[in-house]
Amino acid sequence: MSFPTPSGLRIVRGDATDPQAFGPKIIAHVCNDRGGWGKGFVLALSRSWSEPERDYRAWYRERARNDFALGAVRLVPVGTGTRVANMVAQHGVRRGSGGPPIRYEAVSACLRALAGHARELGATVHMPRIGCGPAGGRWELIQPLVEAELLGRGVGVTVYDTD
Predict the structure, then answer these.
(1) CA count, 13 A, side-chain hemisphere, 11
(2) Between these two residues, 151 and 6, which has the higher pLDDT value?
(3) Locate the Macro domain: which residues (predicted)?
(4) 27: pLDDT confidence band, cut at 50, 70 and 90?
(5) Dihedral sign, CA of 56, 31, 114, 23?
(6) Which of 70, 24, 28, 77 is nearest to 51 (CA)?
(7) In this predicted model, what pLDDT tens digit does every residue of 99-110 receive, in sequence order?
(8) What are the pLDDT digits (tens) for 93-139?
């Protein structure tokens, strides 16, 4: 089952690690800024490919010499025409007095950067409801960011809901 929202965002039942589209594809997800990889959608990514986790851990480990920070994005090739976008938009891994770990400003910055990559590659973007698992985000706050930063820049987006 598939249905587009009024903005053109396509929402389908399925697996975001198996994007249903022709041409170049980017699978987007949210990472934390603490080097942790082990809960949520990353587990599905790791079952499909080893490269995204390996790249994320190296990026984090070498953060003193690179751009690893909230708002940063790295594309990791995982197959012919498919890349995974590791997007750093979660501060820490636990809820605390500061609220959930998601950082909406970082989500927006990541999506803006992702739009540039997608346009350059001629790619569509595929994702679960990013930031709404362990990061603790609310889809009603993230969806408008996806619509503004990706759809608003002419990038096609499909969101995958699992059963």
Answers:
(1) 14
(2) 151
(3) 1-163
(4) very high
(5) positive
(6) 77
(7) 789 999 999 999
(8) 777 667 789 999 999 999 999 999 999 999 999 999 999 998 999 99
DSSP state of 99: B
Q: What are the start-end ranges of the H helices in 25-100?
A: 41-48, 51-61
| Amino acid at site 84 | V
Q: What amino acid occupies position 73?
A: V
Q: Give the CATH number of domain 2-161; options: 2.60.120.10, 3.30.70.270, 3.40.220.10, 3.40.50.150.
A: 3.40.220.10
For tokens 């709404």, what's the residue?
Answer: 132
pTM greater than 0.85 (yes/no): yes
Number of H helices, E strands in the chain: 4, 7
What the block records as the tokens of 23 is: 């041409």
Cα separation, 107 vs 53, in Å, equals 19
CA–CA separation, 154 and 16 (whole Å): 20
